[in-house]
Amino acid sequence: MIKIGLRPLAFFLVLLCSCASIVKNDPYDRKIPKNPSWSINPESVAEESDLISYESLYIHAYDSIPGYQGYRFFSNGRYIVKYVKNDKIDPSLIFSTLTDAVVGYYKIENKKIFLEFFLPRNYGNYHKSEGYIDSGGNIVVNVVNSSRLFSDGEVRPKIYFKIKADDLKEITPDW
Length: 175
Known about the structure:
The protein is mainly beta. The protein contains two helices and ten strands.
């Protein structure tokens, strides 16, 4: 019987896991899919919508944890998401750096919005959301991979309030 030591076996497993990663870092240090497999086709959403403001941020402040999450949309169907661990909402700072920003695609049909972003945790996975744009221009997300259902069966929507940001950093969506 052949005896295999634990060290070579551990080394082999680490090597195998590192090669199996489906994420890569882009020049901005964002984690993006190595072999993209988006369900929203970016070419199908290339027309601008007057329902979304490209000069604004969409902010959801959490009440259970400190911080907030922000969306920034671009006219070519791309958007970025970023979580900020700070209670003070500062639109000029949230996307001043793209480190830790998550990339995604969106499309609008009537007043419904469909979102998909790539989350690099656990070798990467895609998260899909859908919602609508209310009369004030805010985005109400009703479904997030069907995990927004709580034990009582109710859906708890997340409202992203539109905040006009005067000095947004110029970013060209390149994903």
